[in-house]
Amino acid sequence: MPESESQSRRGASERYSVTLVPPAVEAISDLTESTGLSKADVINRAVQIYAFLDAQKRSGADLLLREGDGVPERLHIV
Questions:
Q1: What's the rounded Cα separation, in Å, for the pair 2 and 23?
Q2: How far is Cα 31 from Cα 39, in angstroms, rounded to an integer?
Q3: In order along the chain (78 residues), what is the average pLDDT of each group of 10 residues?
Q4: Contact 77, 63 (CB under 8 A)
């Protein structure tokens, strides 16, 4: 059975040109400075994290963040 185009492209890199809003530009700048990663690495990781969180949310999982006081807070990603 032949692979679909999307399956055959999974291993291929793609180049995108996007316009980012100022808060995203600032977040990327902050992350490149604090992590030492390149802008491309920061953006790649952000997309992968978003995909993971979206999949968890779609499967019915609750997304919780536990603050320093130990109290969990439910995250709402819109």
A1: 43
A2: 8
A3: 59 92 98 98 96 93 92 88
A4: yes
